[in-house]
C-alpha cells in the first residue's frame, strides 16, 4: 500500500536479527547481506509474527538497552492474553506526533474544548493528552467510568469535541439528544469498528456530521486517521509500514480487495516486523476528497469474527440481529444455526443454512429468503454490494424440538478451506446494542 522503504526496512531487519533473541531465531538462515537486492519481494519472504508470539516472547523482542525504556504498556486482553510493550523516549515522541497530526486534521484547535473520555489504565492516554496540549487545546479529560457526567458538564461550555469509543458515545448521545443541547461541534471515534450505520446514528444523536476516525492498537500505536470528509483512514506519515495481504493467496491485496492488515513498526526498542494485527481491510486507491495524498484504506473488522463469501462480509452479531428480527416478525425463533460455506465449479460461494428450533413447525424457506435479503442490507451498510451470482443462500436441513434458547448458537464451517473458522456466542450487550442502534436509526428517519 505504501511505497516500500527498502533501506530502512533492511536496517531494521538486520538490527533485529543482531540484537533480538526472538528475531534471530526466526530469521536464522535468511540472506540479509545483499542490500542491493533487498526489495519488497525479499521483505515478503520474512515470516509473519502473531499476537500470541508477541505475548510469549516479551523481552526476547527487545532490540536495545532496557535502560532506554520510558513506557511499559500492557495491551487489553480483549484479543487474548496481555501483551507487554516497551517504548523508548523516541518511540513515545513519534506516537505523540502522530496523535497531534490526527487531532489537527480533525480540526481540534483552541476554539473548542477537547473532551477525551478515557480509561486512565489504558495505554496511550497520557500521549493523547500530551498531543492535545501541544496544539494549545483546553482539554477536559473524563474517566470512562464517569462518562455520564459529560452531559451534565456540557451546558457550561461553548463548542466541544468529544473523543471516545462508539459504545461509550452512543448511550451518552441518547442523553445528549434528549437534553436538547447543540454545542458538540465534532466527534473523534476510536477503539472499535465504525460502520456507516453507526456513523449515521452518532451523527443523529450528537447533531453533527463532523465525525473523524482514529485507528490503531496498543502494540502498533496509531496507524491511520480519517477526517469527516474521508472514506476510511489515511496511513500515518511516520514510523510504520502497512501491508494488506489477501488471506487466501498470500499476495498483496489489489485495490478494493479484502486483505489482512500486516504492520511493521520502526521502533527503536521493541519493533514489530510483519505483525498480523488481526484486522481486515480494503485498499482505497482513489484520491480522497480531503485532498491528502497519504495511502488510504478502510478497516472492516477482526479476522476471527467475520467470514467472507463472495463479496459478502458477515459478522456474527449481524446474524444474531437477523435471527432476532425474523423472530420479531414471524414469532419463529432460531435456537441453533450452522452455516456451511461451499464453492461451486463456477466460483460461486454458497451458504448452506442448517436450522435447529424448539418449535414443532418452522417455515425454512421464509427464513432463508429473509436471511438472503438481510445479508444484502448488512453489506450495503459497509458500503459494499453483493454481486449478482457471487453468493447463494440455500436451505440445507431443519431440526425441530430442540431445547429452547433465546440466544442463537452459531457455527460457521468453511468447507472451502476445510477448517472450522468460528464458533461464537455473542455477548448479550452486543445484541442489545445492535437492536437499540437499529431502532434508533429507524426513529431518526
Would you write up a description of this structure?
- With 445 residues, the chain is an alpha/beta fold.
- The protein is built from 12 helices and 21 strands.
- The chain has helices spanning 6-19, 21-27, 40-43, 51-57, 89-105, 125-134, 149-153, 166-179, 196-206, 316-330, 364-381, 428-444, and strands at residues 69-74, 84-88, 113-118, 138-139, 142-143, 160-164, 184-189, 211-217, 221-226, 233-235, 240-245, 258-265, 275-283, 296-302, 307-309, 312-314, 336-343, 349-356, 391-399, 409-414, 419-424.
- Strand 7 (184-189), helix 9 (196-206) and strand 8 (211-217) form a beta-alpha-beta unit.
- The radius of gyration is 23 Å and the shape is globular.
What is the 3D shape? Answer: globular
Structural class, from helix and strand content?
alpha/beta
For the residues shown, what is the average pLDDT? 82
Oligomer designation: single chain
Strand portion, in percent? 25-35%
- End-to-end gap: 38 Å
C-alpha Rg (nearest Å): 23 Å
Number of strands: 21
List unreliable stretches of 5+ residues: 383-389, 418-438
Instruction: Sketch the major β-sheet.
Output: 12 strands, mixed
Offer a quick outline of the entry:
The chain is of the alpha/beta class and 445 residues long. The protein has helices spanning 6-19, 21-27, 40-43, 51-57, 89-105, 125-134, 149-153, 166-179, 196-206, 316-330, 364-381, 428-444, and strands at residues 69-74, 84-88, 113-118, 138-139, 142-143, 160-164, 184-189, 211-217, 221-226, 233-235, 240-245, 258-265, 275-283, 296-302, 307-309, 312-314, 336-343, 349-356, 391-399, 409-414, 419-424.
